[in-house]
Amino acid sequence: MVSIIKKKALKLERLIARINVIVREEVIKERDLIIKMNREQLRLGKKADGSRMPKYVKNSKQPSAPGPITLFDKGEFHAGIDTLFDDVGIELIGTDVKTPFLLKYGNILGLTTPNIKKLQNTVRPHIMARIRKLLI
Fold first, then answer.
1. Distance between CA atoms of 86 and 80, rounded to whole angstroms?
2. Residue 119: phi, psi to the nearest 5?
3. What pLDDT, on a 0 to 100 scale, did the predictor assign at position 67?
4. For 104, which DSSP code?
5. Burial grade of 42 (CB within 10 A; 0-12, 13-18, 19 or more)
6. What pLDDT, in 10s, does the model give residues 42-85?
7. Where are the beta strands (DSSP E) in the chain?
8. Is residue 110 pLDDT above 90, yes or no?
9. What whole-number distance in Å separates Cα of residue 71 and Cα of residue 101?
10. How many CB atoms lie within 10 A of CB 41?
11. CA 4, CA 1: separation in Å to the nearest integer?
12. Under 8 Å between Cβ of 50 and 116
């Protein structure tokens, strides 16, 4: 009886491990979407936590630009947004040399809650289809 329970538990552990791999693989496939969503947030003047960026001031590089700071002058910072995948999850990083200086604005690299939900809705059908195949 104990060996049957151990076998079932081991099978379940393997399934859970495989599901984690599937989730990771499906999220990695959406790398470009993740980066695009972060760039769009910044263009709207939003940080990853959903709060607003400060507004441009007269002595800024773009004094005529109305509205919140978008961190887009020549586009180098936006072009340098990339993803880093590790065993824990995904992280948005900035590869542009200005990134450390721009982090003074707070959590600018990451997705807002609505964008996280969009990402989940995008990957969920693919994840579920792959899990169904495992269970058959």
1. 19
2. -60, -45
3. 83
4. G
5. buried
6. 999 999 999 999 998 766 666 556 789 999 989 999 999 999 99
7. 81-85, 90-94
8. yes
9. 11
10. 22
11. 5
12. no
Cβ neighbors of 16 (< 8 A, separation 6 or more) are: none
Distance CA 128, CA 135 (A): 11
Which residues, at least 6 apart from 57, have a Cβ–Cβ distance to it below 8 Å?
63
Structure tokens at 89: 């999850």
Residue type at position 93: I
Q: What are the helix and strand counts (H, E) for the chain? A: 5, 2
Helix %, strand %, coil % for the chain, to 5?
A: 55, 10, 35
Q: Read off the pTM.
A: 0.85
- DSSP 8-state symbol, 117: H
| Cα distance between residue 128 and residue 136, in whole Å | 12
